[in-house]
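Below is the record:
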Amino acid sequence: MAIDPYAMLRQIVAKRKLSKKDLAHMTDRDCSSVWHWLAPKGRGRCRPDEISRRVLEAKLGVPSDAWLSKDERQALERAGAKIFTKVESEG
């Protein structure tokens, strides 16, 4: 089962008693952006940008690749397979 990064982030924020302001300061983003990351499904929720995802992974342990869509994961797998195949054929 895939990790729900939104739920994971909300749980970590609650457990550590972090405010939206704390999270905004940690990621160098505004509170509005943080609100969208923590919003319930269907309430204007959006995922963090790439840099914020990496910061959340480093500081809170939320895997940055957990935010990727199924299509994005498949595209990365295809690209990785192409690179691996090219390197093998050159070796």
Q: What stands out?
A: The chain is about 65% helix and 0% strand. The chain has one domain: 5-90.
